[in-house]
Every structure is written in C-alpha cells, then in structure tokens.
Design goal:
heterodimer; A: 156 residues; alpha+beta; two-stranded antiparallel ribbon; 5 strands; 17% strand; B: 297 residues; alpha/beta; three-stranded mixed sheet; 11 helices; flat
C-alpha cells in the first residue's frame, strides 16, 4: 500500500476548546511547539465529546489582528502608528477560539496515501490535516513531516 | 460636438483598480453561525452567498444576522433563509464613477464584481476602499492642501467638531438587546451609545457585539450592559482631527463619539469614512467629486 497518513502523522497532539481565549490558545501553541521541537502553526479544536469542531491556525489569528480599516490608514503615510500592534494584540486576547476558528475542514484517515495527502495540501492550500478514524481524532499530518519523509526518499 | 457633462478625479478609473479580490463567501446551505464567524474573522459587514460553481445568489449582512437574532431564528439554519438577493453586480471594466452612482442609487456600501465570461464573482468593491484609493491619489497630487502647507508647523489645524454629526442615539444599560436592535434598525445605525441610570455614557453596543451575542447564545431579552463594549471610545471635539483618526485606528472602530468640555458630555459622532474622505478631498478637484452614500453610517 505504500506510505500513508499513519506513517507521517503525529499521534501525540494538542487540542484547543472553542471557549478558550486567544491569549491562552497562543500559549498552547508555544507549549506544543516546545514539546514537538518545531513551531506549531495550527491546532485542532474539539467539542465537549472530544470530536473535531474546527482548526485554529496562525492565519486565523493574523486575520484577527489586521485592523479593519487598514486599507484607509495604510495610505496615510504621515500618520504616526507606533503602538498600534500592541493595541491590536490587546483586543485579540479576549476573543474566543470558537469565534474565529475554521470549521470547513478536510480530514483524512490513517490509510490515506501520502500522494493523496500531497494532492489535498496543494489543491486546498492547507498545511495540516486532521486524521480521523471512525470519527475519532487519531493524529494530525503536518506539511513539514510530509516534506521530511519526502526528503529521505528523494535523497536516498 | 460631444458635451462633456462633468469631470472628476474618478474619471478614467475602472472598478478593477479599486476592487478587493478577496471575496468572503459561503455556500447557501452554510449555517448562520458560519456567517457570524466569517464576519468576525474577516472583519467584513456582509458575506456573499453562493451556489453551485460559485455563482452569487445573495448577501447576508450583519444587519440580516441581527434581524435573525431579533426574530428568534435558530443560528444553525441555512444562510439562504435570511439572505437578501440577488446581489448587485458590476463588471471589472466598468467605470468606477458609474459603480459609485449605483451604490448611491441603491443606498448600499458594496458591489460585487462579476466576470461576465465565467459568471464568477471575482471581487468586491467596497466604499471604504475607494476612500482609501482617493487618499492615495490626493497624496500624490501637487495641488493637495498639505503640500501647500509645507513648513506650516500645524498642518492638521482642523478640529474634530467641524466634521462630526451632532446627533447621538442612546439606550439605557438595562434596555433589552431586542430594544437596542429595534433602535439600530429604525435609525440605520451601526452602533448605539449605552447610558446608565444617571444618563452617563457607559458603553457601546454595535451590530458586531449583537451578532457575537447571537453566536454565544445570549438571550435577546438580556440587558444591553451584558454585551456592550466599554469604555466608550470618545475624542475631544476641540482636538485636531488627526487625533480622532488615530484613536479610531488604534481602537479598530469605525466611529468615535465626540465630547466637548468633559468626556461625559458627548455631543456627536465622527465616522472614519468621513475623516478619510475629508483628508482625501481638500483640493477643488476632490471637493467637486466628493462621494457620499446617503443613509449609511
């Protein structure tokens, strides 16, 4: 059958809850990164029963930080904006994961072939895919892990 | 001999030069909860509702979501149940001035841009984008006021009170969210001031606060104080206009309450579009082409 999600997925993973504030979610990202030895850019979000409810990525957080009217003031080069990033971060801290998470998700199973995973990642512009087995989360596949495995194959 | 009816700074510009290419859309069957989340996440006031190959069927705005909350509709019903349609479209090659005329005529702040060949929505033309673009044009114009005032130690001599709307709608903090929504709908407002029993301003309830309350399952009979944003973002009416602009940008709000003498003495409201438009339009060329979508705030 060849390489599948089972061979490249991380079976030890962190999850967030929809009611978690962004300030805590970011701390969880940092902790997960330390534990996994690599920067974590996205995490799965689970509901009360542990089922997959969404994904929160750094892109979602960046969208939250982006000022609504940047298209207007971005043109105003004469405007002094020192401290604006700190102000945006203060506003974002209290928002909840469930308010900004992505719920339109693509999932795979442990038996999904590596080439199919690559195809999904390219077509859908995603860097991580939750792995479900009978509706239960069993892991997550990161683009970086896929690439690491490909590097081994390509260089051997 | 052709008669030139009018001339302005927008002449010659096409929609595709001002449109935004990121169109926030959802399938017709997506739940209202998704529409709320998209409004919050992408900081947009409306979502394009699509079907099939991405053809735009309608629009769900924050106002529509607020209406669903007011009507007691479950948040898991499909967007198509509350969408308003069909959306108004223009073409990427259309004249920008004509597109603005269409916005004015229909009293709306956005037009979707459709590629006629494919039928797909390729962009959205939002009024604030045009304001931003005008500012860029004016900043490069050698006739602009600020260029003339080079060397002037106080080029931003205009005061907030000169540009505010001297009218404030307020609710009491104990008023129900239903009542607040009635007020917002009646006066076509984006947000309303909340006062305490002594009449002092204590917060603001915006449509964004209300749709978040809808998502979080807050009862529409709950008091306004439970969801209001506090403190009230306000600026001194006698301060330079640029100060108000900075406060709005730092607070990421579209409007700022204006006080005179004391922060509790609110006398008006200033919108970011008004400030940006003014800063774009200080020369004669801009003044004659000043744009305003009536009825919108």
């Amino acid at each position: 059958m060849g390489l599948t999600a089972r061979d490249v997925m991380d079976a030890g993973f962190y999850t967030l809850r929809p009611e978690t504030p962004i300030s805590q979610a970011v701390q969880a990202f940092r902790q997960a990164g330390r534990d996994q030895g690599q920067t974590v850019f996205g995490m799965m979000v689970t509901d009360d029963s542990g089922r997959l409810a969404g994904m929160l990525s750094i892109y979602d957080i960046l969208l939250l930080l982006r000022p609504k009217h940047i298209h207007i003031w971005g043109e105003m080069e004469d405007l002094e904006v020192a401290g604006i990033l700190e102000a945006a971060c203060r506003r974002a801290r209290g928002m909840l994961v469930g308010d900004i998470m992505t719920t339109e998700l693509i999932t795979i199973t442990p038996d999904t072939h590596l080439l199919l995973i690559i195809d999904i990642m390219i077509k859908k512009h995603v860097r991580r895919l939750p792995v479900l087995e009978n509706g239960k989360i069993v892991g997550i596949v990161y683009l970086s892990r896929v690439f690491n495995r490909l590097q081994d194959l390509l260089s051997s | 001999m052709p008669i030139i009816a009018y001339q302005n700074v927008l002449q010659g510009l096409t929609v595709q030069e001002a449109m935004r290419r990121q169109v926030i859309s959802l399938d017709r069957e997506a739940p209202l909860e998704s529409a709320v989340r998209h409004c919050i996440k992408f900081k947009v006031n409306a979502i394009l509702i699509t079907a099939g190959e991405g053809q735009g069927l309608g629009v769900v705005s924050k106002t529509d979501l607020m209406g669903a909350y007011y009507a007691g509709l479950p948040i898991d019903i499909a967007c198509e149940a509350v969408m308003v349609g069909p959306p108004l479209f223009c073409g990427p090659e259309d004249n920008l001035d004509a597109a603005l005329d269409a916005m004015r005529a229909h009293r709306i702040h956005r037009l979707y841009v459709r590629d006629e060949a494919t039928g797909k929505t390729v962009g959205v033309l939002a009024y604030p984008d045009i304001v931003g673009m005008l500012y860029r044009f004016c900043n490069r114009c050698d006739r602009r006021l600020r260029a003339k005032s080079a060397g002037d130690p106080q080029p931003d001599r205009f005061r907030v009170r000169e540009f505010m709307t001297p009218e404030i709608h307020a609710h009491r903090e104990e008023d129900s969210l239903n009542r607040v929504m009635e007020g917002l709908a009646a006066y076509r407002l984006g947000a309303v001031l909340i006062k305490d029993r002594e009449g002092l301003p204590v917060g603001v309830v915006s449509k964004t606060d209300l749709i978040l309350a809808y998502k979080h399952g807050v009862s529409p009979e709950a008091a306004a104080r439970t969801v209001m944003s506090s403190p009230v973002r306000a600026g001194d009416g006698n301060a330079p206009l640029v100060n108000a602009l900075k406060t709005m940008i730092f607070s990421d709000v579209h409007r700022l309450f204006v006080y005179l003498e004391a922060p509790a003495n609110l006398v008006g409201i200033l919108s970011l579009s008004d400030v940006a438009r003014f800063r774009s339009g200080t020369c004669r060329a801009c003044l004659v082409s000043r744009i305003k979508v009536d009825g919108g705030r």
